[in-house]
Amino acid sequence: MDLFFELLNNLFILANEASPFLILGLVIAGLMKTWVPTQILSKHLGSGNSAIFKAAFIGAPLPLCSCGVIPVATQLKRSGASAPATSSFLVATPETGVDSVSVSYALLGPVMAIYRPITAIISAIFTGFLVSTIKQTEQPANSLASTEIKSCCASKSKEEHSEQHNVVQEKSSCCASKPAAKVDSALSKTLLGVKYAFGQLIDDLIIWLFIGLLFATLVKTFLPAEFLLSYGSGLTAMLIMIAISIPMYICATASTPIAAGFILAGISPGTALVFMMAGPATNISTLGVIKNEMGKQVLIRYLLGISISAISFGLLLDLGLNYFGININEQMSHNHDMLPFWFSTMCTAILVIMAIKPIRRLIIK
Q: In this structure, what are the phi and psi dihedrals at residue 81, rounded to the nearest 5 degrees?
């Protein structure tokens, strides 16, 4: 019985640490979703090296997981975006985002919260340039419909995107000449963004987020910090982590508590970073879409770019932390003193309520 209460207490503590920052990230991500139209993105992601940089910087803050990015990236490619720019977008978007950065700060501390998005952007640019070394060949003739079937949430995302766009378009076009219409349109976009954040986005995250928190709780409760310390770092450990991460589906936000669990178990922060980079950027659906839409050569360079970047930045992180004497575990433990207990608990309760669909439908209609 004491062990059960210890598990519940550790789960509650971890949830309280993450929930305020997750809510902040969800709200910002939802507003970005409705205020930054996808059509604008395709105009800036054509051919040329500049498109690779643009794709990385545009994709990094967007609130799309490794599943939800598939239909968006496919549409960008069909709208005229180059294969290198599309690859850069596919790496940067699921590897990081405003929600995952906030949760990284909550669970892993400021160093990881800053380092993670930087590595995502650079790895996206590096992968894009690797793809750009391919000579132009005939584009695979697979249809968009077949790609959407392969994506685990493509149809839902497309329908919801269309519905959101139609609502905003209807409100902004029916009486565009009236000043009140602009206010109404802005309010509609904001409300749609909040609804998206605490609707589809939280649905996409909550299961894996709970699994991650549960994993971190089990590690914190049962495994001593020295358990994996002897073989939890270095090139071999990172290669193993790459092999584990590539086929699995996990979003950037949900990968964060799992990475925190790895670090608590004794794995080096650099090895945990490899998981946070390679896991969200790759899964079976994403790899299949890349092969169908852009070809085998792009797929090979895509995997190579992610693997080289993740391992390089992981090794660099471990070297830097050792050189400057930074202890990530201390940052993980002492990063939340500024938030009152009642506020963190309230944020956890809000997330739990919003994650239960029948209750959420009564609140958000």
A: -70, 145
Structure tokens at 18: 């993450």
Q: Nearest to residue 281, comparing CAs of 127, 178, 150?
A: 127
- Residue 146 predicted with pLDDT over 80: no
Domain-located, residue 318 = yes
The length of the chain, given as a count of residues:
365
Q: Residue 162: inside a domain, yes or no?
A: no
Tell me the residue range of the domain where 239 lies.
2-153+189-363
Treating both helix axes as pointing N-terminal to C-terminal, what angle do 284-294 and 69-78 enclose, rounded to 10 degrees? 10
Q: 167 lies in a domain?
A: no
Asked whether residue 178 is domain-assigned, the answer is: no
Supply angle C-alpha 211, 361, 189, rounded to 5.
95
Q: Which residues of 17-47 are buried (b: 16+ CB within 10 A; e: fewer)?
A: bbbbbbbbbbbbbbbbbbeeeeeebbeebee
Number of structural domains, the chain?
1
Per-residue burial over 118-147, b = 16 or more CB atoms within 10 Å of its CB, e = otherwise: ebbbbbbbbbbbbbbeeeeeeeeeeeeeeb
pLDDT in tens, 304-350: 999 999 999 999 999 999 999 998 888 775 555 557 889 989 999 99
What average pLDDT score do residues 29-45 get? 73
Residue reference for tokens 């699995």: 248
Q: Is the pLDDT of residue 124 over 60?
A: yes
d(Cα 78, Cα 59) in Å, to the nearest integer?
Answer: 17
Within 10 angstroms of residue 165's Cβ, the number of other Cβ atoms is 15
Alpha-carbon separation of residue 115 from 53, 93, 320 (angstroms): 18, 16, 11
d(CA 216, CA 127): 31
pLDDT at 273 over 80: yes
**Whether residue 155 has pLDDT greater than 50:** no
Closest CA to 262 of 220, 320, 234: 220
DSSP H helices, the chain, are 2-35, 38-43, 49-59, 69-78, 83-95, 98-108, 110-132, 144-150, 154-173, 179-196, 202-222, 235-245, 252-265, 269-281, 284-294, 296-324, 328-333, 341-355, 357-363
